Each structure stands twice: as structure tokens, then as C-alpha cells.
Amino acid sequence: MTVRVGVLGATGAVGQRLIQQIDPHPDFELAALTASSASTGKSYREAAKWRVDSPIPEDVADMTVVATDPDEVPDDVDLLFSSLPSSVGEAVEPEFIEAGYVMSSNSSNFRTDEDIPLTIPEVNADHLGLIEVQRDERGWDGALVKNPNCSTITMVPPLAALDEAFGLTDVRVSTLQAVSGAGYSGVTSMEIIDNAIPHIGGEEKKMETESRKLLGEFDGAEVQWNDAEVAASCNRIPTLDGHLENVWADTAEDVTVEEAAEALREYPSIDLPSSPDQLIKVFEEPDRPQPRLDRNQSDGMGIAVGGIQETENGLQFNCLAHNTIRGAAGASVLNGELLLEEGYL
Ligand SMILES: NC(=O)c1ccc[n+]([C@@H]2O[C@H](COP(=O)([O-])OP(=O)(O)OC[C@H]3O[C@@H](n4cnc5c(N)ncnc54)[C@H](OP(=O)(O)O)[C@@H]3O)[C@@H](O)[C@H]2O)c1
Predict the structure, then answer these.
(1) Is the CB–ligand 1 distance for residue 215 below 6 Å?
(2) Which of 31, 46, 56, 317 has the fewest C-beta atoms under 10 angstroms from its C-beta?
(3) Which intervals of the chain form a coiled coil (predicted)?
């Protein structure tokens, strides 16, 4: 069965990546594209300044962009992907869910709400059960699932592997984040070339809260957030794609570099079309992973880890993921695949 899907915010940085992921997808067929009033009524080719590193799919280029309004999206669309600015998502996403649509969203609004599943399918697919809670509490006919922020997705699978094996107590992380994470209008060349910006508004709090929810336990009614203390420092650097992060993870049990590498390599993936066979690749070379060399492994859906060292209270390591694929569009598509697999479509 092919599922007819729509993309809200289809012309933006994440929207274009969504189209790149969905167009060849075995289970999804693109049926609706929305954006702001500046794009409405135009062909997608005209409305989107296509910047993705593969040609714009011909059949998509000729589609007409419609308003981001439930009345404008055909009723036979079963699944929506949202890559709207969070302020817009906060206002319009509930309108779509109330109208009965099932949505997999990138936008940061509602991510830490108690009844909204925030999922990385390889880590916490069971949290999808919150959909029943949200339907009960909000009276929604549709369903809303969120993927986390791009910098959070990069570190959480390695943290989940270490938590499962050795117990996490404290996490500190410092990021080196690519410019695509800010969207097309995010940082200007005059700001970022020959520079690093030691502030990304709201990002630290997102990493500190979303990671604890993702690593939490779902008891059938609510998610008990993980007790680990998480502290983040977020920095923008002049790479195009790929967030690199330096992580210090304190553990309840003593752990050697070899034991950590084994736990990371053996952390299981999930059997969904977009999920890599091996979720976490561990590099032996101390200078890897690097954004330019390693962001595209497993079609941009892999998590790379390297530089593992023992510390007084646990471990230090570096991790990397492609921020607009694994950290955004690919993450949403994977959640869409999970919704299909679990019978929500
Ligand atoms: N970039 C990343 O790596 C990344 C990672 C994770 C999550 N996210 C999240 O994903 C979302 C999108 O980010 P982005 O980087 O793709 O942003 P972006 O490049 O600025 O794109 C925003 C999209 O939303 C549309 N839009 C803007 N205002 C609208 C309105 N009032 N009504 C309807 N549509 C509107 C835009 O349409 P027009 O072209 O017509 O203006 C465009 O399609 C954000 O919530 C962001 O936080 C981004």
C-alpha cells in the first residue's frame, strides 16, 4: 500500500530534504506541498530556491504549492510531514490534527509536552504509545509525533547505548554545528565566514530537556524522564552540514574504552526502510568523525562516534550526524515509517 503524504513548509531547508527523501521512498507518494503566502499558488520549482545536492524531482517541480491550511490539503492525504518554523507549527499543527491528519513533525513546538511522543525509532519506539494518551486528553482524531532537535539526535543514540550498558549519571556536551541547522535565512555569510558563534538561541535547553525525555521510560501512561543531569554549550561553525559534538558522559559503573566501543557498535538498529543496518559506527582513528568525511555515511542516517577516552567518572567521546537528514528530514521520515509499521496510518 502506498501512503499519500504532504509536506508543510516544503520550500525550506528541511522541506527540500524531505522531498529528496520522500520522492524515491517505497511506501510514500507526495501529494501536497505547502508553504507561506509568499509561495502559495506558485509551482514548486518557482517557489523553492532548490539547494539540495541532487536535482529537483521533475514530478515535484511542477506541483503547485498550496496554503498551510487543512482545507487546502486533499482529504486522501494520510500522513503529513511538518518542517514549519516552530511559531507557525504551534499555531497550525493542532488544526491539522483536529481535522484528522496524522503528522510527523520537525518543529520544536510541543516536543516536551507530556502527551506528545518525541521519538528516535531505534531508541524509544515504544513512546509512540503516547498517541493514545494525546487522543484521550486532547480529543484529537489524528496524531502528532515529533522528532528531536538535530543536535539532540546526534548524541542520544550513543548515550542510550551507554545508559543501557553502564548507567548514565551526568552528561556535558559542547557542539560544533553546521550553518544549515539555522535554515536558509539563519546566518549570513558575513556573520559566519572566518568565525564561530558561541550561541544558538534556545538550543542548549532543547538538548538538556529533549535528551532526558528520549532516554526516559514509558510506563503506558507517561514518560518518566531519565535522571541524568545534562548540560550543553552550543556553537555555530562554518561547515555546511553535519553537527560534531564533544560529549563527556559520567557513568554509574566503571567502563573501559573497549567496553564502550562494543556497547556502541552492538546497539541495535530497527527494521525500517530509512534506518541504517548499523546505527552507530565507531571510528578507531582519533581524528574521526569529521563533518565533511563522515556526515553521509548510511545515506546521512548513520551516527558516527570516535575519540573515546576514559575519564575520572566515565567517558569522553565525539559524535557526528548529518543535521538536515538524520537530524531533521530523515528523522521525520523514519517516524513516518514507524507510524505506518505500528498501524497508525
Ligand atoms: N535546519 C535544520 O537542520 C533543522 C533541524 C531540525 C529541526 N529543524 C526545524 O525544522 C523547521 C524548519 O526549519 P528550516 O531550517 O527548514 O526553515 P526554513 O528554511 O526557514 O523553512 C521554513 C519553511 O516554512 C515556511 N513558512 C514560513 N513561514 C510560514 C507561515 N507563516 N505559514 C506557512 N509556512 C511558512 C517557509 O515557506 P516560504 O518559502 O514560503 O517562506 C518554508 O517552507 C524549524 O522548526 C526548525 O527548527 C531544522
Answers:
(1) no
(2) 46
(3) none
